[in-house]
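User: two proteins, same treatment. go.

Assistant:
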Amino acid sequence: MRNVDVVIAGGGPAGCAVAAALAELGLSVLLVDAGVDRHKQLSGELLHPTGVRDLRSLGFGDVVDAWTSQPVRGFAVLFSAPERTVVLPYGHGATGVSLEHATLTVPLLEAVARRPGVTLQAHSRVTAVEQNDARGVRLRFSHDGVEHTVRARLLVAADGRASPVRRMLGIAERFTRISTMLGVTVDSACLPHPDHGHQFVGGSVYALAYAIQPGVARVMVDLPLGSTAATLKAQPELLRTLPPALRSEILQSLKGPLAPRMASNDDRLAETVRRGSAVLVGDAASCCHPLTGSGMASCFHDARALQDAMRRHPEDLPRALERYARERRPAQRTRVALASALYDACAGQDEGMRALRLGLLHYWEHSPRGASTSMALLASEESRMRVMAREYLCVVGHGLVAMRSSRRQGGRLRATVPLLRSVGPPLRDAVASTVEQVGSWWHRRVRRPVYTLARSGWVSPRRAFASN
């Protein structure tokens, strides 16, 4: 039986980032990677400036510099009905990157395997968690058909949104399947705004596109659940609102010898990110629709948060994991809520969502501050829920103003009620987030110190107040 400080399940971007972060603290890390073919995956290809900065701070600067990547200076949002385009640049002239998934992930895994203190166990899977309590974890993993047992102080589940380790830990999740994503490659010359991510909203389908290498762009088309490539071949009219050159490239790619990549778009939120001496990071903890492109930036933020928590409480693992959960939750909650609200606005076909799209267009065209704040939320530079709720209210207000100029009185009436009703979820999330943060502050600053004093005999608070 082996003994290590940390076992990390999953060698994707999240696992590599956590391995580097914890090895930097002098911990011995066993990275267990299943060795899936990342050339077939449709995920993790666009990285916001925040993610690039986090990768560099984790010591992957040489990997980032060696990538054959394309610059991303912001998003171009192309609206249909009315046909208008709004360009949202990153703040302060920052630049993100985009590149093919395997080109991004394989060098990260190779680099982290060379780090002192990191041992890569390739083509292996965690098969059972036999013990998980305050004393540590004992687990089994298989390699070449042979079962191995290892003890560790900490187990990190970084094995993606379907996370088998999360299920082994008995952590439930809130799960909603949203849609099916089809990904193809096209000639990047058909994208109208070089060096930008493209979002096509308001048509029969939502689409996201960005360059991944010189002359090549990835296009991801959002389709109803249960759809396949055959669905799009049989109904090419679904693409009618896309630019003609792009539409032609997509249909031509579907006729090629290579099968398009497919993935499901899900909302997943684990009920907790820690249990015993185990913790969840990245998509294993939460994931959402990819239209914000924030997935990788989010998992690198998790790695930094876990590193900071372990640095602050090196001898108190429960306290460290509590801090990690507390520090990551506000940003993740805002990210998931933002993706849900934006997807409804970009892909919804009812009168209320059409009015909300009109409000987005009007807001971004008439408020430079609003466009800047919206981009900061998209890029994970701004993570406060109250800011997102405020911006949503501004968009609804601009939607009402824009509808006043509409000539269709009946359409205005039909759109006003669902538009106003859509304000409910963001405001509810903002209130819940505020209450939760106040409760966390009360526990840390008042209840815990009083409980500590009570145990030492200095004070005698009421039993209810002294409870931990």
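Protein 2:
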Amino acid sequence: MLGTYTIAGETASEIAAGVEVAVSEGRLPPGAMLPPVREVAARAGVSPGTAAAAYRLLRERGVVETAGRRGTRVRPRPASTFREEIRIDVPAGARDLAKGNPDPRLLPPLHEALAAAARAHEERPAMYGTGDDDELIALAGERLRADGVPPGSLAITSGTLDAVERVLAVHLRPGDAIAVEDPGWTALLDLVAVLGLRPVPMRLDDEGPLPEELGRALRAGVRAVVITARAQNPTGAAVSAARAEALRGLLAAYPEVLLIEDDHASGFVEVPLHPLGGVTTRWILTRSTAKAFGPDLRLALITGDPVTLDRLRGRQRLAAGWVSHLLQRAVAHLWRTGAVDTAAVAASYARRRDGLVSALAGRGVPAHGRSGLNVWIPVADEATAITRLLARGWACAPGARNRIGAPPALRLTVSSLDLEEIEPLADDLTAALRPTLTGRYG
């Protein structure tokens, strides 16, 4: 059960810290069973209450999970092991399609926006107690209403994950179940583990989570659901009008479930938004500016029900306090001046993404990429496919970073791909993947 590791410590914190170190160092591998609370208490010479408190700390930190009568075990992917660490070393000279960045050539110049923000700062510097920028809030509200998002309170956070973490922390507790897309966003899956939540995977197709998968998760008692509206990472799925109607119908029967809708694709995709928010009592929709304006402009606009937004702001005040008003005013300037031609940017990404999917289809290779920056290619064996593709000069991301129970696949970020590279890439992919292809999506 524990091998040579001996549980020790005089307090709950010391016991938990010792176990966490053992997991981090590999002395307690994923799946290792921990002894019952009373046995731990006897071994460490502490009360059963102290041992139980140690286990509770470990669950809250995402190190262990408790499965009722089956006992307590080290999580298959403990919080100290992040999915981002599942990566490949890109050799010199290889074309790197593994990173999920936007094309720098399509990002707007920032000097005018930052200069305008600096001038506004000189006129009315943001001090402690200053609220969010009024112009940015107004512009965000106009855009959300134009997309059919239900009216709600507004808040500004340092990116989507910042908002999601704070909302999950105020609504859920360690051990609660949360429905997530599978395959899904790496950072969200890591966050779920760190918060000690129990992920319930939902399979999806090109139109978003499958209704039967959401229904199954809701019946299983999930406390929250996270759905990507469009440009789903890694598959490129986008919720269609018909799919949105079906998902809203399911959610309406569970009004107590927290709905988190991620619309990070606003500003760089061509498919329309079909919002789900407002069906449940507690909900938020996040709209990031990172892909359209650049990852260093780490800012997201959040709308949702008043209670959730109040809790979000409360958690924010206890930590960072606010998002830099220089960034807020810079984003407001970019929006107000139309610094990004959204249609042109979306069309540019679509030509590369659709071009690769079409070229692969012509060679008998199934691939997915309805919207966004990525193409998802199901394979039978990721390691073999990656090795063969590297030998041909192309690096891609292993799908294992994004998967819970979904079949193996590769993720290629095509945002920086030049059009003349599509056919050679499709040829090399076909040659490298032919022995490892699978038609399965999820």
